[in-house]
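Box S2. Input/output pair 1.
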Amino acid sequence: MVRSILKIKFSNTIKTGLIAFLLLFISVGNSQVPMYKVGTLNDQNSINDNVVSSICKDSLGFIWIGKMDGLFRYSGYDAEVYSSSSNDKKRLSNPWVTDIIGYRDELAIGTKRGLNFFNPKTGIFRRLFPSGTNSELSNEITSLLELPRGRLLVGTANGLILVASDTTSVLKEIPLFVDGVRNKAVRVRDMVQSPHGVFINTELGVFQLSEDSNRAHKLAFISGGQELNDIRSIYATKDRRLLISAKQGFFYFDIGSYRLTMDKDIRVSPIGELYSNWPPTKRVNVVLEDSNGTIWLGTEGNGVFSYYKQTAQWKNYRFEIDKKNVLKNDFIRALYEDESGMILIGSDAGVNTLIAEGGIFQSIENLTCKNIKEDVSNVHSILTDRNGRLWIGTRGNGLFVKDDVICINVHPDENGRLGQIRSIIEDEYNRIWVGTQEGVYIIDSRKVKTENIETYLKNVQPALLPETEIYHILEDRVGNKWISTLSGLYIYTAEKNLRKITNTNIETILDKKVVYSMFLDSKERIWMGTLNGTIAFLDLNDYDNPYLFSEYIGKSLNFQRIAVAPTYKDYFENYGVYSLTEIVDGTILAGTNFGVCKIDIENKQIAPLFSVDEVSTSSNLGNSYVYGLLYNKNQNQLWASSNNGLFSYDFNSREIENFGIKDGLQSLEFNGNAVHKDSQGKLYFGGANGLNIYDASLRFEKSSFKPNIALTKIFVNGKLLENDLKSRALNNEVAYTRSLTLSSKQNTVGFEFTSLHLPHPLSNYFKCKLIGVDHDWIELKNKRSINYANLPKGKYSFQLMATNNDGVWNETPLTIHLEILPAWYNTWYMMLLWVLLSLTIITLFVRVLIKNHNKNNALKIKEIEQENLQNLYESKLVFFTNLSHEIRTPLSLIVDPIKTLMSHSEIYGRKPELFNVLNNNVDRLRRLIDQIMDFRKYEYGKLELNVVHADMVQTIRSITASFDFHSVQQKIKFKVKLPEHEMLMYFDEDKIEKIVYNILSNAFKATPAEGTVRISLRNFDPQKTKKLSKYKVICGNDKLHEFQNHIYIKVVDKGTGIRESNLEEIFTRFYQDKTINSGTGIGLYMVKQLTELHSGTILIKSKRHKGTSFIIVLPRNEDIYSTSIVDDQPLVSQGEKAERPSTLILRGTDNNIFKAKTHSVAIVEDNDELRMYLKDILEGHYHVFTATNGVEGLELIKDEIPDLVLSDVVMPEMDGLELCRQVKNNFDTSHIPIILLTAKTFDSQKLSGLQSGADVYLTKPFNREIVLANIANLITSREKLRLIFQNEKILEPSKITVSSVDETLMLKLKKYIEEHVQDQNLTLERMATEIGVSRAQLFRKMKALTGLTPNNFIKSVRLKFAVKLLEENKLQISEVAFLCGFKEPSYFSRCFRETYGCTPKEYMKS
């Protein structure tokens, strides 16, 4: 009622006065209350800012938060949400959670629709609905309380029920009695356990339920004769007092002083009688007494109050607009303290945390100046003066001065020069020097009091260096002030003289560098550090009278530079120095952007203070930006402010400690050189959000709290593993999992974990190892996950250790047993099966080996036999080939003499028949040799067709003519039936001759005397193929009816015939029929191969003793032989008879060249008879020289220089090819033409001969007329070339020589003569010297090539040059004569007339 009246009746003026009074009261009341910092949970995305009804903690240490939108489990880093579902066992029955308590091994969770029992180990919810037992009971759960013997007391919206310990499915309703009358439908607000039973706060008041009673009785709380009503909350303290928040105020009574009986009135006292200076609040929703005895009050609209009983002080935490570290909302629903002392606050806008600030460091983030709270941020300079005042210089917030009474702030809005204050010092005369962005202010503390400083700074100008940005001020032992500025370094001497030291006309090593920090060490050295990679010092002992330092101004001061140690030169390039200090042994330390560095004064070098091994993995002091350094001599400790918090290094224990937000730091970021140490030993550090103070005389203790470690997530192959029906790997929730069995394919495992020390979870560090993989612990720092990939099968143990917020490690690691199962094919039973299968396969394999051993041996024997047959075949082939080569030479000595004799009519006329027999058999022998050579060519794949356009009738007629004499001799009727007209087509004449000759030869062999052999030739008619049905197709196309434009050759004999089974075998290599004289056995084989080359078909029909019929079908199509056609051969006219082989006519030889022996020929041949025969042929026409091998021949050629060389190829000592190469590459003999005469007939052999330099390649047996004609042609060609040279007006060496050596020589001679054409004394000797040969060699060579002596050759070149000049018609004839090297024009004219038949003058006119 009073509250309503106040809301309605109070005027705005009264409200304002009351609020001012309350603020003043609060400011006085909380002066000594322990400070707590308001914060929030880390995961603000998952936990929405709405109504929080209850907070609880489970046995592992997870925080459970009940909210209007579900249940949340908080791990310190993130939250897992449990929402609602009507039938899912993994979800709540209703999203609005009203209360949570720990019940046995589960959580009892009350919602607005039912009671839920949650098993954290399995993740399963069990539901209980009171209406299921009694439909009159409400399902809205309002409060929960665990009773002894495992019973659960449940408050609902219309009563109280009891859940028995043996089962949670049986409910017992607890009736509520008022004055002996049972009341139904009473809403329960909360319940409190006490030694006398349970106090139950309802909408009707407080009821008491004794331990052994089955009913609850109402208690009447009396104060001042009136009963308390509208009781909002009750709470039992540790000292057995019940605190009561009612409409009339806050009361209490001592539970132990009353004997609680039915309907007894209980007198309560105002809380002020128990606790003086109680917070001014009435509507308290929830009360909490923490482990320190502090009482926390959560109110309805006034935030949270804390009451500290020892000092009777209190503090109020509330929501403030646009302020940080305040509550989210002032309507408080839940309070909870965890084991670490953190207070959790649930409000209508989410969860806040309260963490005690009684840490190591005092933090000043704001100061109240003139009743206005001012932010103390971006602190750059600090000083505590002799009067105990704290001076704070900032960037953007001006200057703060605070003493024990007042605090003043001179803001940049009042004095713009104070926008940035980097340095504040106190000199020996108690004057404060303030270095600003626009000069130095000097404040005399003896004259200017604290309350007057603001006015003083508003009215005065800078005492020194106005408009100059100040970085640092240092006072030395004699009172000189060293002032570093943006424009250079200054000194203000004790005699009050200001002088500039750097950036003057006197050069120093500090020119164009900003000195950021300065330090005076114990040996009177001033150290100066810049941001441009330079440290230097000035030793004041070098100067006689530092008191008269002004005497040295204007002179170059002895600054000594500190260089970077060679090892770190590249790494420390352009480093910056933010702070300098000295430790006990005199070592100078520097705070840089590369960590802490030490200076080796003796070597004048700087290097890192810590090596990699010295700095622990939990610290990154070695690579942080170190902004400030302070040395605490008493504890031998170095303190460093950085961009990663504060560090302390103990030189005795060599341990590094890192301090962060949890330790009370204003932030992790500090400012350069913003450090100070006062006379009391306190250390000051200025940072981005304020100032931190550390009392070095106090020893700080680390928290001994040992938090639990728990897994929060498990990842398998990159996917989250969950405890559900789909996953068989987990039997429990992840946090309770202690063993994990995975398949072989699930061999990549990741773990996420937490250390449940929750105030500052990011300060918890972890280390782990997987036994079986890791040998040592893996330091994770505050990273809380790790992944192991591609684990082989086997058993592992994952061990995890963690620290609390102060870095204290727990003693027992969390161990997870992990097993990767083998693949199905790698299990023990499958391995056994594989062994059995392997043994079986080996057994079978051995049996197969044994079984096939004889078979393999038989195959090897067969292979050997085949190899022997092949070798025998190759031997035969080589033998026949070599034999054919050997036969060709004696055959040449037979063929040529016979033809020579037959060419003499008087000799041939005596016995023409005998000469014809000789000639025919010689031709037969030649054909046999050629057939053997063709056979070998075919075997090596080098037999090709030389197709020409010719008359097949003429070709067949010439072949049959060679059998006329044979048929008469053997008395065989030989009938030839050929068309009377020409049958022009494309074919290889030589190959067709071999085909027909072989077939006719076999026919004559198989035919006895008086028998018949017939041959016919006609066009093939595809319409008449029925007659050929009895023929067997040996090769080619058997679809005879498809043949178009074909001819066929048919040979029929009446001989012994061939067995039908042998018809195909007779066409194989080396087949011989014993019934007849079958020869070498390659004739019909070659017939088949040559026919196939012509794309032809062979048909055969034979009967024993009846005879054989051969048919050769050949195509007439031109396109079949498109790649094999050569130039057409001249055809014999239809009326002209083919020339008989016995007829020999000598043609084409010009006998005139043989009349006189003007030329010589060298014969090189190892066969004596052939060499003598060749000499006999040639010596009637040439001078002949002979040699028996290539070596003799080469010497002979060099000595005699013949006009032509005729040589064999196969010779001892040096063959003909090598002889040819040496002749052509020799200067003296390169012009001599060479004819190779050999028995080697392969195309590749001919090509080798021509490539060696031969001019002509002739094969044995040879025709004498052809040999003579080639010799005559080569000699005549050489003579013609010489004539061409002599008659050409212009010299072209390529026209007078065919040898590259000769052509090169002639080009050199021509070039040399043309270059010296005006030289009238040009001689043979000079040209020989230029060319590099002897005079005789050059004479012979020029004579042989040109037919001219060297002098005539020179004259010829001069005349040819003269012709060129005359044709230009620009010079007189006398000028031309002198330019061409002629001494007199008359001699020139005479020579010109002799050469060209006219005078030079006549030539010019023509």
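Box S3. Input/output pair 2.
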Amino acid sequence: MSTLSRALLRHATKLSSIRQFHITPRVFQERYYTKKHEWVQILDNKKEVRIGISDFAQNALGDVVYCELPAIGAKFKREETFATLESVKAVADCFMPVDGEISSVNEQLKTQADLINKSPYDNGWLVQAKMNKTTQEHLLDEGDSGGVGESSQQVTTMKYAEKPPPPRNETNLSGLKNQGATCYLNVLIQTLLYTPEFREPLFRLTPGDLNLPANYNDQNASTTNGNNNPKIRKIIVELQRLFAEMLLLNQQSCSSIPLTNSFGWQSNEAIDHQDVHELNRLLFDAIHKSLQGTKQANLIRLCYEGSTINYTQCKQCQNTFKRSEDYQDLPLVVQDSPGLQTSLANIFTISEQLIGDNQYRCSTCANNLCDAEKWAKISKLPPILTLPLQRFVYDIKTGNREKKTTRYEFPFEIDLQEYCEESVAKTNYELFAVVIHRGTCYSGHYYGYIKDIDQIGTWIRPPPKSPSMKASQKAKSSNTANTSSNSNESHESSEETMRKLDLVKTLLLSCDDWITTEDLLKSYRENTTTSWSRTRGAHGTFNKFLRSHPEVFEVDNNRVRLVEQNYSMEVDNNDIYEMEYESSQNEALDENAEHWFCFDDSIVTCVTRENIKKHYEQNECAYMLFYRQKNRSKSKDDSATSTPFSIPQWLFDEVVEKNRLLEEARENYDKYQNQFSVTIYPSDWFEIVDDCRLNLNNKNQVLFPDGYGEHVFDKRMKVNEFLSKFESKYGDGSHFYVAKKLRSGQLHVISELTYSTNDKTLDRNDLSTYRNVIIYKYPSSLPDTVLQGEEFEPVMLNIVYGFPDARIRAPNLQSTRYVAKNTTLAELKERLTYDYYRNANPQQLRQIRMGKLNLEEKNNRKSRREYKSEDEKQTLAQLHLQDGDTLGIDDKNSFVSNWRDVSSNNTNLGKTQLSLTVKNSIDPNYTKPMTYSCESTTLIADVKLMAIEAFGVSLEPNMCRLFIDNHPDVAHIPLYDHDNVGEINFKDNNTQLCLKFGPALHENDLLLYILSDREPSSLELVVDQNMTLTDLWLLIKQELKMDLDDNEYHLREVVSSFEDDGTPLNDFHQTLTNNGLSNGAQLTMRPGSVPTKNHVRLKVFQIFDKIYKQPEAIHTVPLYEMVPFDNVFELPVISPFNVLRERIAQTIEFKVPPNYARDTKPSEFIRLYEMEDDQPVSIIHEPVLTTLKQAKVQDLGCFAFELLSHPESLGKKDLLLNIVYDKNEYGSGFQHQFEVHWPLKENIVAKYEYLEQHVLTRLTSFMTDHLHFKNVSKRAFKITLARYFPDRAQWLIIDPRSATSSSQSTSKKNKTSSTPTKSNLKLEPYKLDDLTVIGVLEGEQLTVEDFDTPYDQKMRRQLERETEQKRLTREKTRTENDQNKTNGSSGRRRSPQNTMRIDVDDFDA
């Protein structure tokens, strides 16, 4: 396997996902493709070939950064390495596909290795080589073979034909692909293209004006062309190129990526939602800067720039002041305005009074503030008037942006005279483009309605609603309570449905026939900005939508295509109405008729003015209007040009070449889509069996004779033409029978191919389904007794006789029967009875019974399902009997104790004949398959020997093996030599095998494929299935030359090509079989080690110290200082936590001090903590029988331990409390700290009395041992206990005698009663738990003020500030959400919008 193909294999990750498509070179005469993804192209001189790698290969490799090519004159043999490619992912070797001498190399790759990614079939070729004579003749013979079809017996190439972009639809206009969220760019570019005042001057710029070098192309364009040469005007060049492609390239949509690359955009900038009005200004500024120094330097100013004059008249001195302003667009306010004229009038006809606080400072009146009047007029109108509508406004009260969707009308023609100065002459304008926005002010979608002024496209008036449709809608509306609202909803739903129908139909028009619904939905998503799930509404799922329009779509399981239009003579009144309407309209149409189109990214459709008027309001409303002066005289070109639309010649030639390549690609793809292979058999290879099947009987000739075998045909060929070619090849009068290959590999005749007056294509004939032809040369023919047709297809049944004397008679009977599936069960019963008894009278037949057997069922009663008398009238097909089913037959007087035992008496059960086809995958120069008939008990080893002999391969049998061919799920699994043919699980009746190189598999052998990031190839290992997983790991490490101590990987099995990898393999001490591995298993090495099965690995940290935020705040939660252990502890999941303690004690080599009893264990000195966020949070109690599995401990879970000075045994209900005692003299904090182990039995309530006793006992001990007090008696102590809550920095007095403990008073006046209660301190409000802090002060009836510290007060103030801040944030968010809901938008928070930019070089110099 080549390094390149290994890299591809690693890229695919799963072997089963790589499929090979074997085709004839005649279909693709341009290139041959090897299985290692190199391609070969025969040059015109027929002596040289050009070699490169496929597009699939470059995609798998990633960005190629370096290319090492051979020297000219170097000679290579086939399969030798001739080049090395280095990418960001891997280093791959390229292997020579032919024998030859290098005659030329692609010098461009030395400096531009990425050409392999950009253009693998054109500019990214690798080398050219001179073929030797043998290779030359071999390739040319393959390419020029003749005959009835293209023989694929000699084909060793592999090809996947990439689907080319679809051509333009019926409008003959091209759209623009959406790069992610570039709809705003697309609609603006489309508007500029159909603005002749802008497009034509742009095309007049010559390559010299743009500083283009002579060899400029899109692969090697650069900002500068040499050190002293001027900079290329990239934006103008790419805009010209995009315009030319949109005008001439026969493609449904063009790409704007080169244009956005010239802007300096990164890929992430194409997915940002931006404003089209902002882009309009940025783009015009960038174009203006890029045109400086050219003859079109003033293009933007001449096309789009106008001016206004602002007048201000002082009321005191009556002087009028003028100020002129230039504009490229006039933004209009939509709010509180019904239409365009009102908005213009508010600006240019209504004056504003400057009075009061808004007075004018008049320079004539000594700069005093004076009353004044202000108004404005248009002093200059541009040829193209751009009017953005300010739909998005900012609400000062709420601080939110809103979209105004109120009704706003705009005329299609307008006279601007009343808004202009008297000197302005041309004031009549016509609407020619409308940009529509759908969505909210934060996100949405832009598309446009554009008038085709130059009539570039083909406009077809959309059909009107028929009278019956109008009547039905009128009836529906009259029966609706809320007429207006419901009719709007109905209309909107109908329009949405038609839009979706048009889009889906357009996508299907670009497909060749059937397409899967999954691919269609994917294409739909690529051509629209909204997913189906968000817009489906009443349409339901995508499949439901397709099935709900059977008149448009033909849906077959998971496939769909357009319904063929059969034009009959019968038409209804609606059709007549539409035809009459179209006829009348066509007569009325003239060359001046308006041609409006809807441009929605890549989809272009025809519309009328009525469609545009629907966007006066609603969510999909007009956002920008473009008007042009009426009756403009077309400007004369500076120089006459012969190209369409005055496109520069260099661009015209480039687009013509692209169209040629597109047509070639479509033609090749069309051929690829319409090719299918047919296997042609000679009649003398078969013998007729059971009058319904043809059994292969060709032991003397296992290879197809010349003219037979697998051939490739075009499914569009007519049957009569197909027969004519066959007769010319095999002789007049020959008979050609279409046959179906059965599960056994034998053939059943379906029909005979004959000439017909109703000549059909091959794809509508039985041949396209069954793809097998048997030829009876004249004068022989198929006997009339042979049953033909699908209804006579035989079903292979195993028959088990349960008669009392079956042990004697059954071995002499045929146990496997082939019965036509239209045979009734009664007919089969009569036939079997006759064969058994040689007699079948009606009385005897009534005693016979039959049933379907399941021999795997141990319960004899359940192993047989008896057929009833009414079942005997049904056919085998109606009973759903399939190949391989077993039927039992006995009489009513018989009693079969065990059908399995009865079946074992018949030694012939399951013995059948199989027809196998074996391909030669060892010698690529000899690929003629072997067709061989054998019994199902034949060993695989015998078939392999037969194939080696037939192919003439000089190879030992133990160095090759057989695989199932043409099925990706099992194609990588070799067959065992000791198995027999009947045990092979063939798929889809495909009994094809292939012979490949590799060690033969014997019993107990497993072939494993290992994928790793250490080796781009898949490592193939043949191992013993009884090997342990540990031994397998050692073998893998040796093969990959890994460090034997490297345990940073684990193995996972690749379960399926459509699923994630399986669970890790970690039963290291068990065999491969016990780990669930089977022959052909695909394993992948993943980073990271895994524990042994049913074990977990634990990370352990040792606590050395506790640090408090402030020294006097010892009552707060400390920060633990810890040191991690170097090694993890691997324990069985059934281990209790005490095992972990023992392992820790062994690791630190802790020994029990001598002053403790002998039975004291080292683990009793280990206190274990659970951890969260890298800090201990709770203590693990012992003795507890809870296992690691029951505690749901995860692998690599973290635990901390503390080494105690004394043994400790915390019971299940015990508590370990932190006690702080005695404040310092300043009252700023507690002075002493110690722990109290409070033992609690299972049924003991945690009462105050018990707590007080244990605290007093521990306190007196602490005072004696640490504070050195003498004669301390706990009876003399009067103490108050308080519980500290660190999350809120508050104390709570523990005094259960209070009537309401939770609402204690902070005053000493509130005394408590002396009646104790039985409240549980583990419950509210105290909630005592491990490590709870209990404050102890001497004295009775103390309050929380006595326990409070300055630190607590500081923390409470901080918490109050944080709480208040959160409250204000919530209120603000709630207000924003309420406002957004009022505006009809969602309440989600919006991320800030990225700033849009266009980088332009400096051309002023």
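Caption for Box S3: The first strand starts at residue 32 and ends at 33. The domain at 306-425 is CATH 3.90.70.10 (Cathepsin B; Chain A).
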